Amino acid sequence: MTRLRAQFLLLASSLAAALLLTLMPLPAALLPLKPYWPALVLIFWSLEAPEHVGLGLAFAVGLFADLLNGALLGEQALRLTALTFIALRFRARLRFFPMWQQALAVLALLLNDRVLLLMVRAFAGDPLPSANYWLEPFSGTLVWPFLFLLLDDLRARLRVHET
């Protein structure tokens, strides 16, 4: 198997796992703490393999997530496209941050995503959400270092097996 094909399979399987994790049921008390998995995985791939991740992929993943969740069609597509655009735009800086600064940058990206979601839902006529609405970016920030290390380790193992 070529290195490019192996990396594509890892990218596709990590995005599929992220979409499956969004479907994972949680008790109502823990639901606000569920990280936005597709966003975290797209941020990782935007930083580590920008040649394989683009706005089209982010839009497609978002549409697929909308279909899976039964959300307003295009809502997550818009959010993930905006998030991927920002991550790709600032990739050169974000990549070389220490992990704690990178986690803070991920927090900023996820908070930006929540503001965008709030705007979309306000235009749709939904009422303002409760304070729990803002917990998801913080749980995503806590998960980020572990997810980054896991996916980075898998990429490194692919490189070792290819040589």
Keywords:
163 residues; Arp2/3 complex 21 kDa subunit ARPC3; mainly alpha; globular; single chain
Rg over alpha carbons = 16 Å
Which structural class matches the secondary elements? mainly alpha
> Largest beta sheet, briefly?
none
Number of domains: 1
Order of helices and strands: HHHHHHH
Q: What is the residue-averaged pLDDT? A: 93
Task: Give unreliable regions as ranges.
Answer: none
Count the beta strands. Answer: 0
CATH architecture: Orthogonal Bundle
The first-level CATH class is given as Mainly Alpha
Describe the structure.
This protein is mainly alpha-helical. The chain has one domain (2-162): Arp2/3 complex 21 kDa subunit ARPC3 (Orthogonal Bundle), CATH 1.10.1760. It contains seven helices and no strands. The protein has helices spanning 3-23, 37-48, 55-69, 75-89, 91-94, 99-123, 136-162. Helix 1 (3-23) runs parallel beside helix 3, helix 2 (37-48) crosses helix 7 (136-162) and helix 6 packs across helix 7. It is globular.
